[in-house]
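Justification of resources, computational component.

The compute hours requested in this renewal are based largely on the per-chain cost of generating structure records like the one below. Each record pairs the submitted sequence with a full structure-token output. That output is archived, and it is also reused by downstream analysis tasks.
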Amino acid sequence: MRIWAYTIVLLLGLCPVAVAGVDSDPAALMKGLKTGGHILMIRHALAPGSGDPASFQIGDCSTQRNLDDRGRDQARAIGDWLRSKGINSARVYSSQWCRCLETAKLLQMGPVAELPALNSFYELTQNREPNLKALRNFIGQQPLDGKLIILVSHLVTISAMADEVVSSGEGVLLKLIPAAKYEVMGRLNFDR
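The structure output for this chain reads:
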């Protein structure tokens, strides 16, 4: 039933995404990373547990679920992987959650800007639609030939935007297309 509803939405042009298929050619993904008009959405690196404590506050990492040492190593390794593929810098945006901000900074791909539209709505379900609308608007304003954009976010955000379930430290590559839309090019596992 879900696939039919999704197909109808796409056919009517109500959704700004086209799904190219998850079995994308690795060479095409590498080319996309290096050419303009692409967005790499990365789920934050390993942060043990799920959700956040009831006392959660943006800006206070002591109230949040954070990266552990494995997560920090994973974030650094993603940045190393990107550099090994010839990507030395990008425009980097992050959710305001500490685990995302730390992941984004440890990539060492450039200055990190907070983008509230990337914030999690896992426990704040009332923020789902406003966040997604703001994120789609942000994506729709990006140049079709601009520098690679890296968005560090959460499972729920990436799943909603790309219809992909990614593990911590995995990514999805999006290609910007005309009319403020994007196409899902495929998933990236940075261990390969």
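The helical segments are 2-12, 26-34, 69-84, 98-107, 128-140, 155-162. The chain has one domain: 2-189.
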